[in-house]
Design brief:
alpha/beta, nine-stranded mixed beta sheet, two-stranded antiparallel ribbon, globular, binds oxo(2-sulfanylphenyl)acetic acid, binds manganese (II) ion
Length: 264
């Protein structure tokens, strides 16, 4: 049995000696960072902006700093249960109150990049999860399920948002698959490479935005606009995803890191 202190020193040693890789799953946060586009009857979210306070100048001779502003759901970001009406009554459901152990968990990376290449409206279904489990083992409780679509390789915001006459076309999770993951697999939440955890066409689904409705209705989380999922093994990585401690926040931009055993 590993002593508790040894378990942690193995992690720091692994990071220093290269047996553990640290992979950044975060996209750059800047004014050009794509923001979700909702149907026109709904209020929009602001893009990221930066305004300089001083830059080693008259306004502050020895210091550089900025004010920044953005919607809580901008760039790589965390969705808390309070974000959705179905999750509004859970205790400890906002960014400041979620128990912090729930920000860290093993990653199960499900690769559906091929399906997504053929179909921008691709939805992850239960049979795909079951096929993944037959190869890699059952998804453990308290896991982050990361859906690799390679969508983050679309670096042109137009291609990334993929908005057509009838709205955005981006992949997502099948409504039936969400309760399976939340309840039958007891996951922390789902992470995706697209601008939101729901499919682009999810405003037209019944219920509308089913991934948000069901995932937050089960007191689980979301991670959106992830990148570098292609650098992760199917199992074996640990994801660290703590949002900002915004009081009563529905989510926040964050840095998402994965610890990956080298060779994994
Ligand atoms: C509000 C309404 C619909 C959606 C979203 C936000 C998100 O995707 C989000 O970032 O949480 S689909
Ligand atoms: Mn969000």
């Amino acid at each position: 049995m590993t002593k508790p202190a040894d378990a942690l020193s193995a992690v720091t040693a692994g990071i220093l000696n290269g047996t553990i890789r640290v992979v950044d799953l975060t996209v750059p946060l800047e004014p050009a960072t794509p923001v979700i586009r909702l149907p026109p009857q709904f209020s929009p979210s602001n893009a990221f902006s930066l305004t300089e306070i001083s830059h080693y100048d008259d306004r502050g001779p020895a210091w550089y700093w900025n004010n920044f502003a953005c919607g809580e759901h901008t760039g790589t970001h965390f969705d808390a249960p309070i974000h959705w009406v179905t999750g509004k009554d859970y205790p400890n459901n906002a960014t400041h109150s979620i128990p912090v152990d729930r920000f860290i968990g093993p990653a199960c990376v499900i690769d559906v990049a091929e399906g997504t290449r053929a179909n921008s409206d691709f939805l992850l279904t239960i049979p795909v999860i079951e096929a993944w489990e037959a190869r890699h083992g059952r998804i453990p409780a308290h896991a982050w399920v990361l859906v690799r679509t390679d969508w983050s390789k679309r670096t042109d915001p137009k291609q990334f948002l993929n908005i057509k006459d009838d709205g955005p076309h981006t992949p997502g999770i099948h409504p039936k698959c969400v309760p399976f993951l939340a309840k039958e697999r007891d996951i922390l939440g789902i992470g995706v490479e697209t601008v939101g955890t729901d499919a682009g066409q999810a405003a037209t689904f019944d219920p509308m935005f089913p991934c948000h409705t069901i995932m937050h209705g089960a007191n689980r989380f979301g991670l959106a606009s992830l990148t570098n999922l292609d650098k992760l093994p199917p199992t074996g990585a640990i994801v660290i995803a703590p949002p900002l401690k915004i009081v009563n926040g529905s989510g926040s931009p964050l840095r998402v890191l994965a610890l990956v055993p080298n060779g994994g």
